[in-house]
Amino acid sequence: MTTTIAAVSVGRDGNAVFVLCADGKLSQGALGSHNRATKLFHLGYNWMALMAGYWNTARGLCEALMVSMAASGRPPSDKGELKDVIETAGNRFAASSLWKEDEPCRLIITGFIEGSPVMLKVDLEEKHYITIDPEYDFCAAGSGEEAAKLLLNHRGADPLKTSLEEACYAIYEAKKFSEMAEGVGPVTHIYIHANRGDGKLCYNELSEKALEHLEEVRKRSSLQPVTDLMPKFPSSFFI
């Protein structure tokens, strides 16, 4: 149970980057929970996965994809090859005894092919069966998924008209809004996943100072309490 969000931002220079976001909450049933989990996984080359759903399933699937990616000896050259790599490893994992059918997971996979951003949503919900769907603009997963998408749609998230700074704010705001969903933790991690052009890993995490700045903007720009803004209705308001 979590919230993970990915969005594309294309700056004025035409270079696309991904803004990736996740909370840090990891529930362990009767053993309690903590907010220290890292839900971003490096699959190999410059491909990343955000994990949602059951932790053991998500980690196991990511490890299977990482092995498959390494076995190819080079990054995928097109979307078809990428889909084949994910599908082959994913279905092998899904058919194994390494996961329980009642412990599904979802991944948001991001990377670049010939400089173009590629985002896929991977679902593992049924035994022996994995689904792979292309995503554009933005994608969310986890128990806070609907709330995050609702606010991103409200903001009119558009990667072709959104600067990196605006994209980071929209993602941060959506994640904070999603905290109303059960299971979403208060800790926020935001990563910038970029393309160096050589297929090697390229990402950075926003600092605590940057998150504090985004929170200050949110206090000014997001939904505000109305308690002090609503005076008592005068008698003329009633028929």
Mean pLDDT: 87
Question: What overall geometry do the principal axes of the alpha carbons give?
Answer: globular
Q: What letter string, H or E per element, gives the SSE order?
A: EEEEEEHHEEEEHHEEH
Q: Helicity, in percent?
A: 25-40%
Largest sheet: 5 strands, antiparallel
What is the β-strand count? 12
Q: Which structural class is indicated by helix and strand composition?
A: alpha+beta
Tag the structure with descriptive keywords:
five-stranded antiparallel sheet, single chain, alpha+beta, 239 residues
Give a structural overview.
- With 239 residues, this protein is α+β, with helices and mostly antiparallel strands.
- Helices cover 31% and strands 30% of the residues.
- A hairpin with a 2-residue loop joins β7 and β8.
- The mean pLDDT is 87.
Compile the SSE list and pairings.
Blueprint: E1 3-10, E2 16-22, E3 26-27, E4 33-34, E5 40-44, E6 47-53, H1 55-71, H2 79-95, E7 105-113, E8 116-126, E9 129-135, E10 138-142, H3 145-154, H4 164-178, E11 189-193, E12 203-205, H5 208-221
Antiparallel strand pairs: 1-2, 1-10, 2-11, 3-4, 5-6, 6-7, 7-8, 8-9, 11-12
In short:
The protein is of the alpha+beta class and 239 residues long. It has five helices and twelve strands. It is globular.
